[in-house]
Amino acid sequence: MTIANVSVSSVSGSSSSSINASLTSALTTTPATTTSAASAASEPLTQSRVTVPISSYGFSSFPVPSETAIPGVFPVTDPNDPPAVGAPVVPDFEAAWATAYGKAEALLANFTLHEKINITTGVGWENGLCVGNVGAIRDFPGLCLEDSPLGVRDADFVTAFPAGINSATTWNRSLMRRRGLFMGREHVSKGVNIALGPMMNLGRNAAGGRNWEGFGADPFLSGETAYETVLGLQGAGVQACAKHFINNEQEHYRTLESSNVDDRTQHELYAHPFLKAVMAGVTSVMCSYNLINGTYACENDKMINDILKREFGFQGFVMSDWGATESTISAITGLDMTMAGDITLGSHTTFFGQNLTAYVENGTIPESRIDDMATRIIASWYFLHQDTPTYPTPNFNAFLPSDPTTNAHIDAQDSHYRLVREMGAASTVLLKNVRGALPLTGRERGLFMAGSDAGPADIGPNKFVDQGGQSGVLAMGWGSGTANFTYLISPYEAIQHRARKHRTSISWTFNDFDLARAGNMAISQTVCLVFINSDSGEDYIVVDGNEGDRKNLTAWHGGDDLVLAVASQNNNTVVIVHSVGPLILERWIDHPNVTGVLWAGLPGTEAGNALVDVLYGDWNPSGRLPYTIAKNAGDYPTMVVQGEIEGETPGQAGGGDVVLDIEYSERLEIDYRWFDAKNITPRFEFGFGLSYTTFEYSNLSIVKVPRVGDADADEDDGEEDDEARWDAGKATRIAEGSSTALWLHRPAYNVTFEVTNTGDVYGGDIPQIYIHHPPSAGEPPSILRGFTNVEVGAGESAVVSILLSRYDLSIWDVEQQGWRRGDGGEGGGGIGLTVGVSSREGRLYGVVPV
Ligand code: BGC
């Protein structure tokens, strides 16, 4: 059944004429029923559909390095020792991968087929200590896979870090890296081998339920945050997992929707953060629940074999999302590991295990592919040196947290709260500040707080499983992307503590709905702080009618009414927002009595303290919006598709034979790109954020970076030089690793300018670079391609340098399947460039020369 503008199509892969006879018969044969790990099952299997086109791309077990490391430009890098943040280098992990592959091949040399397949098959839901587990085999101790992208899930004595969206909101690479590093260390202390993050879907829909786990609605910002997070996590010794590959942009029917995305959009937008994760040496990628162009992500030959493994040269392994494997033949289309192992969680059946063995034994799948799968998994383990005997084994039980025999209750927190507090402040965006409302001076006589979001949860911070409910301050969303709070500082606690110092008189109400009382209490206070929020999460939990995705973009618990009730009685009303994503603020944003707005996102365990630092000016706000806040929900280019399929329950894994088609027809124009292209005025644009001081920019210069060393191995082959070809407007040549080729990503242009702090206080600024391709390129008007953070004292100046690579100035040429200059190179007129303070406010303008 279809409703509204949703089309529904049958699930079927584009059939290929090259299907060979044995494969055809294997595809139509019901596989054996169970693995050795779960032999109890006599249940029938549910594999009834054939969705897999046969690979037209070869796979090689180990891509050949195409370039030579050059010290100072492409340093040979071990993942445990990544380059410093901001170093103008592209780390070269080839040697580390080669060593790891050598060790993996040696370890696996005597493994039987059955043993190798066991490495690729999770032990099944709730059959191990972690949320995903690979069993021990001979000298290999097995693997513990554990969520989440903001800390260690299902464990105690861990830190609840700021959510991914807050990491992006800092636009500060050092903080992003340190967050990754500290989360990585906590995973290692708990004995986790593979941390299931970062999550890097793009926030195509403002109401998408899991947007907060990720890094916002721009591919470049998301890619930079992903890059630093992976380098940080793996720097600590845990393997990272880039998820969810790909186009898992809404929760509603996530297992029954086909995201239909054209090749250019896929390359330039949705795949870009994954490319950056590969360049950071990520060892694993998780394929998503949805279909892409009619084929499930975990059996999507095009996405996994062609783009990820061939074009990006990804040398780690691909695991399924939990229950997202759809067939045994997925092994051929690139899937390396099935998680949690069973077909549906707890089914005691598997598409891998004995079924995969049978496919090898009957000649359908070559054993060399099994070797490749097992080698990729074991090599990743060696790549991170997890074979060292001191690497901790799992010391917590994700499913039985009170079991005394499996929980050691190790305190993993260290002093990570300091980073949480700093990042909480650095990710708070000052959206409005009039009549000197902020920062507070300490001279306030009366301060009133209104709203449940100001206060603590009624029975502690872990009242709801996986945070699937709301009580008190909102510091993370819900679902698998969560961690338990060891403690949670609410604004009420932190503000009281601070106010005592200033002898300020404090009052509060946590009741969101008693508007009359809130209004009365607001009368004659020096300042009123109104707290509102908005929550979302993963589809397996429904909160207040929100099935993962948000059902609207307005504040929860009538928050807008509370703001108006207070603002109607007090002319110094400051609104604080804890939200998973954009909200429509129109009912009160222009109210003359609303003098300030602080956008705090989801700051984690130090929520209240971080807010106090910004409120009182100990931290000068430097956060910038990682998405657009519109005036109307209808201004956004897309909405969550709310189609219903007869007989199907949203949120249940796969199984149906009809799916929702979701056309990504806005193509390159998501978020600010759409508002710019369609000339729609947003309320607050992407990249926007105020400070307690002001900055001026001057002296723009754009120069070509001279070439250092010979990064282009092709030169010696008598072939045309890659860099010169690109400069001449030709597309890159497709090859294994061609999109991650070091030469393409090396610094090519140096953009420098001066930033002067023209205000009265020290502050941090985030200069942003937007480029403008000529109309012939078919790009949105402005595209973010660079940013940095700079701290400057009052009255002082700093020279800022931002490097751009050839890749940064490229568009994806669909015909030639390569990256090329957007202006066509020589004679193309150059590419426009703006240095600005947001996507809409430019300060300096130039042209990138050829
Ligand atoms: C989520 C993943 C998560 C996995 C394991 C799935 O439902 O989509 O992000 O890592 O569960 O908990």
TrEMBL record:
Pfam families: Fn3-like (PF14310), Glyco_hydro_3 (PF00933), Glyco_hydro_3_C (PF01915)
Record-annotated Fibronectin type III-like domain positions: 765-839
SMART domains: Fn3_like (SM01217)
EC number: 3.2.1.21
PROSITE patterns recorded: GLYCOSYL_HYDROL_F3 (PS00775)
Pathway(s) per entry: Glycan metabolism; cellulose degradation
InterPro entries membership: Cellulose_deg_GH3, Fn3-like, GH, Glyco_hydro_3_AS, Glyco_hydro_3_C, Glyco_hydro_3_C_sf, Glyco_hydro_3_N, Glyco_hydro_3_N_sf
GO molecular function, one term: beta-glucosidase activity
Enzyme class (EC, first level): hydrolase
Family: Belongs to the glycosyl hydrolase 3 family.
Protein name as catalogued: beta-glucosidase
Gene source species: Lentinula detonsa
Lineage: Eukaryota, Fungi, Dikarya, Basidiomycota, Agaricomycotina
